[in-house]
Amino acid sequence: MAVTKPRPRVLLAWSSGKDSAWTLHVLRQKGDVEVVALLTTFNQAFDRVAMHAVRRGLVEAQAESAGLPLIDVPLPWPCRNDDYEAAMAQALAVARAEYAITHVAFGDLFLEDIRQYRESRLQGTGITPLFPLWGLPTPVLARDMVRGGLKAQITCIDPRQLDPAFAGRCFGSDFLDALPEGVDPCGERGEFHSFAYEGPMFSRPIPIQVGETVARDGFVFADLVHLRKEE
Length: 231
Fold this sequence. Notes:
Blueprint: E1 9-13, H1 18-30, E2 34-43, E3 48-49, H2 56-66, E4 70-75, H3 81-99, E5 103-105, H4 112-122, E6 128-130, H5 138-147, E7 151-157, E8 170-171, H6 173-178, E9 192-198, E10 208-216, E11 219-226
Parallel strand pairs: 1-2, 1-5, 2-4, 5-6
Antiparallel strand pairs: 2-3, 7-8, 7-9, 7-11, 10-11
Protein backbone atom coordinates (compact mmCIF):
# COMPACT_ATOMS: atom_id res chain seq x y z
CA MET A 1 0.00 0.00 0.00
CA ALA A 2 1.33 3.42 -0.96
CA VAL A 3 2.08 5.78 1.92
CA THR A 4 0.43 9.16 1.57
CA LYS A 5 2.94 11.93 2.13
CA PRO A 6 1.62 14.63 4.48
CA ARG A 7 0.98 17.98 2.85
CA PRO A 8 3.23 20.93 3.79
CA ARG A 9 1.70 22.97 6.61
CA VAL A 10 1.53 26.64 5.67
CA LEU A 11 1.32 29.81 7.73
CA LEU A 12 -0.11 32.64 5.60
CA ALA A 13 1.08 36.22 6.09
CA TRP A 14 -2.26 38.01 6.34
CA SER A 15 -2.43 41.76 5.82
CA SER A 16 -6.26 41.69 5.69
CA GLY A 17 -6.10 42.90 2.08
CA LYS A 18 -7.08 41.45 -1.27
CA ASP A 19 -3.67 39.94 -2.13
CA SER A 20 -3.38 37.84 1.01
CA ALA A 21 -7.04 36.82 0.69
CA TRP A 22 -6.52 35.76 -2.92
CA THR A 23 -3.37 33.87 -1.92
CA LEU A 24 -5.48 31.83 0.50
CA HIS A 25 -7.93 31.07 -2.28
CA VAL A 26 -5.17 30.01 -4.70
CA LEU A 27 -3.48 27.76 -2.13
CA ARG A 28 -6.75 26.06 -1.29
CA GLN A 29 -7.60 25.58 -4.95
CA LYS A 30 -4.26 23.91 -5.66
CA GLY A 31 -4.70 21.62 -2.68
CA ASP A 32 -1.07 20.52 -2.48
CA VAL A 33 -0.50 22.35 0.83
CA GLU A 34 -2.58 22.87 3.97
CA VAL A 35 -3.00 26.42 5.26
CA VAL A 36 -3.14 26.04 9.04
CA ALA A 37 -3.07 29.62 10.40
CA LEU A 38 -2.94 33.32 9.53
CA LEU A 39 -0.25 35.75 10.73
CA THR A 40 -1.00 39.47 11.13
CA THR A 41 1.02 42.36 12.53
CA PHE A 42 -0.83 44.86 14.72
CA ASN A 43 0.23 48.34 15.76
CA GLN A 44 0.05 48.21 19.57
CA ALA A 45 -0.70 51.93 19.95
CA PHE A 46 -3.83 51.78 17.78
CA ASP A 47 -4.64 48.03 17.78
CA ARG A 48 -4.89 48.10 14.00
CA VAL A 49 -3.14 46.30 11.16
CA ALA A 50 0.10 48.03 10.21
CA MET A 51 -0.33 50.25 7.08
CA HIS A 52 -3.83 48.97 6.29
CA ALA A 53 -5.11 50.53 9.56
CA VAL A 54 -7.84 47.90 9.84
CA ARG A 55 -9.36 47.32 13.27
CA ARG A 56 -8.45 44.07 15.05
CA GLY A 57 -12.07 42.96 15.27
CA LEU A 58 -12.39 42.98 11.49
CA VAL A 59 -9.31 40.80 11.07
CA GLU A 60 -10.63 38.39 13.68
CA ALA A 61 -13.90 38.24 11.71
CA GLN A 62 -11.91 37.41 8.55
CA ALA A 63 -10.06 34.60 10.30
CA GLU A 64 -13.32 33.17 11.65
CA SER A 65 -14.94 33.28 8.21
CA ALA A 66 -11.83 31.69 6.68
CA GLY A 67 -11.96 28.95 9.32
CA LEU A 68 -8.39 29.55 10.49
CA PRO A 69 -6.70 30.57 13.75
CA LEU A 70 -5.07 33.99 13.86
CA ILE A 71 -1.56 34.56 15.21
CA ASP A 72 -1.16 38.24 16.03
CA VAL A 73 2.22 39.98 16.09
CA PRO A 74 2.17 43.07 18.36
CA LEU A 75 4.46 45.85 17.12
CA PRO A 76 5.48 48.96 19.07
CA TRP A 77 4.88 52.43 17.66
CA PRO A 78 7.13 53.71 16.30
CA CYS A 79 8.64 50.38 15.29
CA ARG A 80 12.34 49.88 14.56
CA ASN A 81 13.36 47.13 12.19
CA ASP A 82 15.04 45.29 15.08
CA ASP A 83 11.74 45.33 16.99
CA TYR A 84 9.88 44.03 13.93
CA GLU A 85 12.30 41.18 13.31
CA ALA A 86 12.29 40.13 16.96
CA ALA A 87 8.49 40.08 17.07
CA MET A 88 8.29 38.08 13.85
CA ALA A 89 10.88 35.57 15.04
CA GLN A 90 8.86 35.01 18.21
CA ALA A 91 5.63 34.59 16.23
CA LEU A 92 7.24 32.04 13.92
CA ALA A 93 8.48 30.10 16.93
CA VAL A 94 4.91 29.99 18.25
CA ALA A 95 3.63 28.88 14.85
CA ARG A 96 6.14 26.06 14.67
CA ALA A 97 5.38 24.88 18.18
CA GLU A 98 1.58 25.10 17.99
CA TYR A 99 0.86 24.38 14.32
CA ALA A 100 3.96 22.49 13.12
CA ILE A 101 4.34 24.81 10.14
CA THR A 102 6.83 23.96 7.42
CA HIS A 103 6.20 26.92 5.08
CA VAL A 104 5.18 30.59 5.17
CA ALA A 105 3.22 31.99 2.22
CA PHE A 106 3.26 35.63 1.13
CA GLY A 107 1.05 37.55 -1.27
CA ASP A 108 3.91 39.49 -2.86
CA LEU A 109 3.66 40.06 -6.60
CA PHE A 110 6.84 41.49 -8.14
CA LEU A 111 8.99 43.60 -5.80
CA GLU A 112 12.32 41.77 -5.78
CA ASP A 113 13.74 43.54 -2.70
CA ILE A 114 10.75 42.52 -0.58
CA ARG A 115 11.00 38.91 -1.69
CA GLN A 116 14.74 38.80 -1.06
CA TYR A 117 14.25 40.23 2.43
CA ARG A 118 11.65 37.60 3.33
CA GLU A 119 13.80 34.80 1.96
CA SER A 120 16.84 36.04 3.89
CA ARG A 121 14.91 36.18 7.17
CA LEU A 122 13.73 32.56 6.76
CA GLN A 123 17.08 31.22 5.65
CA GLY A 124 18.39 28.65 8.10
CA THR A 125 15.11 28.42 10.04
CA GLY A 126 13.89 25.24 8.34
CA ILE A 127 10.81 27.15 7.15
CA THR A 128 10.34 27.51 3.39
CA PRO A 129 8.86 30.70 1.88
CA LEU A 130 6.12 30.44 -0.74
CA PHE A 131 5.03 33.14 -3.21
CA PRO A 132 1.92 31.73 -4.96
CA LEU A 133 1.06 34.95 -6.85
CA TRP A 134 4.61 35.87 -7.83
CA GLY A 135 5.09 37.09 -11.38
CA LEU A 136 1.43 37.08 -12.36
CA PRO A 137 0.62 40.11 -14.57
CA THR A 138 -1.13 42.47 -12.15
CA PRO A 139 -3.63 43.92 -14.66
CA VAL A 140 -4.85 40.37 -15.31
CA LEU A 141 -4.65 39.33 -11.66
CA ALA A 142 -6.71 42.31 -10.47
CA ARG A 143 -9.48 41.52 -12.95
CA ASP A 144 -9.34 37.82 -12.04
CA MET A 145 -9.90 38.74 -8.39
CA VAL A 146 -12.97 40.77 -9.26
CA ARG A 147 -14.38 38.11 -11.59
CA GLY A 148 -13.65 35.47 -8.95
CA GLY A 149 -15.98 37.16 -6.46
CA LEU A 150 -13.42 38.92 -4.26
CA LYS A 151 -14.78 42.12 -2.73
CA ALA A 152 -12.54 44.57 -0.91
CA GLN A 153 -12.65 48.14 0.38
CA ILE A 154 -9.78 50.60 -0.05
CA THR A 155 -8.51 51.53 3.41
CA CYS A 156 -5.28 53.43 2.74
CA ILE A 157 -4.01 55.70 -0.03
CA ASP A 158 -0.55 57.10 -0.62
CA PRO A 159 -1.49 60.60 -1.87
CA ARG A 160 1.90 60.96 -3.55
CA GLN A 161 0.85 58.21 -5.96
CA LEU A 162 -2.95 58.27 -6.06
CA ASP A 163 -5.73 60.80 -5.51
CA PRO A 164 -7.04 60.64 -1.89
CA ALA A 165 -10.58 60.48 -3.32
CA PHE A 166 -9.95 56.78 -3.97
CA ALA A 167 -9.92 56.09 -0.21
CA GLY A 168 -13.01 54.21 0.89
CA ARG A 169 -13.91 53.04 -2.60
CA CYS A 170 -14.72 49.43 -3.45
CA PHE A 171 -12.05 47.45 -5.28
CA GLY A 172 -13.84 46.44 -8.45
CA SER A 173 -14.08 47.02 -12.17
CA ASP A 174 -15.05 50.69 -11.82
CA PHE A 175 -12.13 51.27 -9.46
CA LEU A 176 -9.69 49.59 -11.83
CA ASP A 177 -11.06 51.52 -14.82
CA ALA A 178 -10.53 54.81 -12.97
CA LEU A 179 -6.92 54.21 -11.95
CA PRO A 180 -4.53 56.63 -13.65
CA GLU A 181 -1.71 55.34 -15.82
CA GLY A 182 1.34 54.32 -13.82
CA VAL A 183 -0.61 53.09 -10.78
CA ASP A 184 -0.33 49.34 -10.35
CA PRO A 185 -3.79 47.71 -10.49
CA CYS A 186 -2.96 45.69 -7.36
CA GLY A 187 -1.27 48.61 -5.55
CA GLU A 188 1.94 46.60 -5.27
CA ARG A 189 4.12 49.72 -4.98
CA GLY A 190 2.10 50.92 -2.00
CA GLU A 191 -0.30 53.11 -3.96
CA PHE A 192 -3.23 51.73 -1.97
CA HIS A 193 -4.14 49.05 0.56
CA SER A 194 -7.41 47.22 1.08
CA PHE A 195 -9.60 45.07 3.31
CA ALA A 196 -11.16 41.93 1.82
CA TYR A 197 -14.68 41.35 3.14
CA GLU A 198 -16.19 38.79 0.77
CA GLY A 199 -15.01 36.10 -1.59
CA PRO A 200 -14.44 32.39 -2.19
CA MET A 201 -11.91 32.22 0.64
CA PHE A 202 -14.61 33.12 3.19
CA SER A 203 -17.60 31.11 4.40
CA ARG A 204 -19.64 34.31 4.72
CA PRO A 205 -19.15 38.05 4.08
CA ILE A 206 -17.88 40.39 6.79
CA PRO A 207 -20.44 43.22 7.03
CA ILE A 208 -18.74 46.61 7.06
CA GLN A 209 -19.49 50.30 6.85
CA VAL A 210 -17.09 52.99 5.62
CA GLY A 211 -16.51 55.55 8.35
CA GLU A 212 -14.36 58.65 8.66
CA THR A 213 -11.54 59.43 6.23
CA VAL A 214 -8.47 61.03 7.81
CA ALA A 215 -5.00 62.14 6.72
CA ARG A 216 -2.21 60.98 9.04
CA ASP A 217 1.54 60.45 8.77
CA GLY A 218 1.54 61.25 5.06
CA PHE A 219 -1.24 58.80 4.14
CA VAL A 220 -5.02 58.94 3.78
CA PHE A 221 -7.03 56.33 5.69
CA ALA A 222 -10.67 55.32 5.37
CA ASP A 223 -11.88 53.76 8.60
CA LEU A 224 -14.03 50.63 8.40
CA VAL A 225 -16.58 49.69 11.02
CA HIS A 226 -17.67 46.10 11.63
CA LEU A 227 -21.46 45.87 11.46
CA ARG A 228 -21.97 43.13 14.00
CA LYS A 229 -25.41 41.64 14.57
CA GLU A 230 -26.01 43.74 17.67
CA GLU A 231 -25.31 46.88 15.64
